[in-house]
């Protein structure tokens, strides 16, 4: 029995937010990670050293990259993430800092490994220290989120040193470390910068949703979240036209679609509705984007011409 009192809404929303919805790209990501993890562990057990590999998960903002990596790390019971006694940290994960200079990225990586620099060091020394700490903490994978930032404002020469550093982590003669890079399409600039690096990378893309082909999937997700929220999806939000509007409003991003569905359910809860209707989506989008109905994909007749990405302030197209 669902407690429908208003005071309970935050808890119900939190429960919806904690649902992880899988998709094909995620399954591929997970499978690839599992394979590389097993391979690395087998090599360690056999006392052999082989070059590590890299997985790149590429998708626009709102596609679900950060959620995917967090979920993957959190749901693998075999990963040790900071053992208080041994210090073992199987996966170290951090966003690329700004500015993404080689030195600052190194320094931030060191901090993520639990080591604060006390004095000024050269980039070379910092990265040597990073490698030492990765070994000490027995880190198997290093994850950089927003990895496309490694390429921003870099001269070709700087880019080469970033790429060489990444390669040197994977090729370390004693303790090679696998890389996971998550980022927008600009991440491909880094990958394509160097053929040797490209060869070591397994790229996975979180594709944009399609207004037609993904309509049924969008409606299934909507139905599932409504059910979990204890609401009924009204007939008007189960049509393929509504699905197209919803997908378009989400800038065709999987994660964002879920985020908007949850926000519409919240809107319905706040108005004490039992049936989820178009009006809840319209109101939710109006509040979120601060736009007039003419620019609201849930109302406007020519919704396909609306730039949802810009309205939702998601940044560039990538
Ligand atoms: N697989 C998923 N299941 C449920 N919600 C998701 C999923 N992926 C993303 N989301 C939701 O979509 C939103 C954007 O996801 P996020 O991971 O931040 O995207 P990105 O890192 O690609 O910009 C978040 O609110 C998140 O909760
Ligand atoms: Mg993210």
Which short descriptors sum up this protein?
318 residues; alpha/beta; Rossmann fold; 2 domains; five-stranded parallel sheet; two-stranded parallel ribbon; 13 helices; 7 strands; binds adenosine-5'-diphosphate; binds magnesium ion
Overview of this structure, please?
This protein has about 325 residues and is of the alpha/beta class. It folds into two domains: about 25-205, Rossmann fold (3-Layer(aba) Sandwich), CATH 3.40.50.300; about 210-310. Helix content is about 50%, strand content about 10%. The model has no long low-confidence stretch (mean pLDDT about 95).
What's the structural blueprint in terms of helices and strands?
Blueprint: H1 9-17, H2 24-45, E1 54-58, H3 65-74, E2 91-95, H4 102-112, H5 123-136, E3 141-145, H6 156-170, E4 178-183, H7 187-193, H8 195-200, E5 201-205, H9 215-229, E6 232-233, H10 240-249, H11 254-270, E7 275-276, H12 278-289, H13 308-311
Parallel strand pairs: 1-4, 1-5, 2-3, 3-4, 6-7
Helix pairs in contact: 1-11, 4-5, 9-10, 9-11, 11-12
Bound molecules: adenosine-5'-diphosphate and magnesium ion.
Task: Give the number of domains.
Answer: 2
Radius of gyration: 22 Å
Strand count, sense and barrel status of the largest sheet are: 5 strands, parallel
- For the termini, the CA-CA separation is 43 Å
Question: Unreliable runs, pLDDT <50, ≥5 residues?
Answer: none
Give a short summary of the structure:
The chain is α/β, with parallel strands linked by helices. The chain contains 13 helices and 7 strands. The chain has 2 domains: 24-205, Rossmann fold (3-Layer(aba) Sandwich); 210-311.
């Amino acid at each position: 029995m669902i407690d429908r009192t208003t005071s309970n809404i935050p808890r119900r929303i939190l429960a919806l937010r904690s649902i992880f919805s899988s998709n094909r790209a995620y399954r591929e990501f997970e499978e690839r990670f599992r394979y590389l993890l097993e391979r690395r562990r087998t090599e360690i057990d056999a006392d052999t050293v082989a070059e590590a590999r890299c997985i790149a998960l590429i998708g626009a903002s709102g596609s679900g990259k950060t959620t995917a990596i967090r979920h993957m790390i959190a749901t693998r019971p075999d990963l040790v993430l900071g053992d208080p006694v041994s210090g073992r940290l199987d996966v170290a994960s951090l966003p690329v800092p700004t500015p993404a200079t080689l030195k600052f990225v190194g320094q931030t990586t060191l901090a993520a490994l639990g080591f604060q620099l006390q004095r000024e060091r050269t980039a070379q020394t910092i990265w040597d220290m990073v490698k030492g700490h990765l070994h000490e903490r027995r880190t198997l994978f290093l994850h950089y989120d927003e990895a496309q930032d490694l390429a921003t404002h870099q001269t070709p020469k700087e880019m080469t040193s970033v790429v060489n550093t990444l390669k040197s982590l994977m090729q370390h003669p004693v303790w090679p470390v696998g890389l996971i890079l998550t980022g927008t399409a600009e991440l491909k600039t880094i990958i394509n910068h160097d053929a040797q690096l490209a060869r070591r990378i397994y790229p996975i893309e979180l594709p944009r949703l399609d207004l037609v082909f993904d309509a049924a999937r969008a409606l299934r997700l909507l139905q599932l979240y409504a059910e979990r929220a204890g609401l009924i999806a009204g007939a008007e939000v189960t049509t393929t036209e509504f699905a197209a509007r919803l997908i378009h409003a989400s800038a065709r991003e999987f994660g964002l679609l879920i985020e908007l569905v949850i926000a519409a359910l919240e809107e319905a809860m706040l108005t004490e509705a039992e049936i989820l209707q178009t009006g809840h989506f319209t109101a939710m989008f109006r509040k979120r984007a601060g736009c007039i109905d003419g620019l609201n994909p849930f109302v406007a007749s020519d919704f396909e011409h609306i730039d949802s990405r810009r309205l939702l302030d998601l940044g560039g197209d990538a």
